[in-house]
C-alpha cells in the first residue's frame, strides 16, 4: 500500500516535471553558470546514495562556464548521476568529466555498470521507457528522467546522447556555451 502510494506520488511529480519540460524553450532563465561548481554540488547531493552502495564517484572537471538555465542544468546532471548510481552495482565506479570544445561544453557521465543493451539504445530517451537494467531501491522510476533531460538539453540548443563505446553506461551532453536564442535576442 505504502509503496504504491509513494510510486503514484512520484509518477505525478515526474509527469508534472515532464509537462513543464515540454515548455522549456519558452521559459529558460539563462545566467552564466560555473559548471564545475554545479557538478560538485550535484555529486555532493548524491554522496550518501553512492556511499551506501560503496561506489566511487570520480570528478574530472575543467573550470568552465556555460550560459544556461541553472536549475534545468542541475536537473539534467542530477538525472544522469542518479541513473548511474541506480543502475551500477555495488562497489562500481562513476565518473563525471566536463570540458570545453569549440564553443560548446561537454558533460560526460560514465559508469562501470551493465550499460544499455543495444536493442534499447534507441528507446532510452523516450518517455516512460524503462529497460531491463536492474535498479537498486524499492521504489521504481517512471522512465521520465532521460526524456526530461533531453527536453531540457534541446531547449538550450544542445544534444544528449548515449555513447556506445565500452561496456558500461556512458551519456554525453553537449551544450552551446551560449544558447542561440540568447545570442539572437541580443542581436535583435
Ligand atoms: N547509467 C545507466 N545504465 C544502464 N541503464 C540505464 C542507465 N541510465 C538509464 N538506463 C536505462 O534507461 C531507462 C530510462 O532511464 P530514465 O532515467 O528515463 O528512467 P528511470 O531512471 O527508470 O526512471 P526515472 O528517471 O523516471 O526515475 C532506465 O530504466 C534504464 O533501463
Ligand atoms: Mg532516471
Describe the protein:
By secondary structure, the protein is an alpha+beta fold. It has one domain: Heat Shock Protein 90 (2-Layer Sandwich). It is 40% helix and 23% strand. It has helices at residues 2-22, 35-45, 47-52, 70-87, 145-155, 180-187; strands spanning 30-34, 56-61, 65-69, 93-101, 104-111, 159-162, 170-176. A hairpin with a 7-residue loop joins strand 6 (159-162) and strand 7 (170-176). Helix 1 (2-22) packs parallel to helix 5. The model has no long low-confidence stretch (mean pLDDT 92). The chain binds adenosine-5'-triphosphate and magnesium ion (MG). Adenosine-5'-triphosphate binds next to helix 4 and helix 5.
Amino acid at each position: 500500500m505504502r509503496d504504491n502510494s509513494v510510486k503514484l506520488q512520484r509518477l505525478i511529480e515526474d509527469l508534472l516535471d515532464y509537462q513543464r519540460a515540454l515548455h522549456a524553450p519558452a521559459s529558460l532563465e539563462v545566467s552564466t553558470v560555473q559548471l564545475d561548481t554545479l557538478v560538485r554540488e550535484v555529486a555532493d547531493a548524491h554522496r550518501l546514495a553512492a556511499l551506501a552502495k560503496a561506489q566511487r564517484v570520480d570528478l574530472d572537471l575543467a573550470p568552465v562556464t556555460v550560459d544556461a538555465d541553472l536549475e534545468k542544468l542541475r536537473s539534467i546532471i542530477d538525472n544522469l548521476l542518479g541513473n548511474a548510481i541506480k543502475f551500477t552495482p555495488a562497489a562500481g565506479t562513476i565518473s563525471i568529466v566536463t570540458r570545453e570544445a569549440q564553443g560548446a561544453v561537454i558533460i560526460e557521465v560514465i559508469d562501470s555498470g551493465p550499460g544499455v543493451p543495444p536493442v534499447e539504445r534507441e528507446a532510452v530517451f523516450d518517455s516512460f521507457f524503462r529497460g531491463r537494467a536492474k535498479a537498486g531501491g524499492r521504489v521504481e522510476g517512471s522512465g521520465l528522467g532521460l526524456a526530461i533531460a533531453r527536453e531540457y538539453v534541446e531547449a538550450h540548443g544542445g544534444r544528449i546522447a548515449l555513447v556506445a563505446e565500452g561496456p558500461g553506461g556512458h551519456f554525453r551532453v553537449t551544450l552551446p556555451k551560449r544558447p542561440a536564442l540568447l545570442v539572437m535576442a541580443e542581436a535583435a
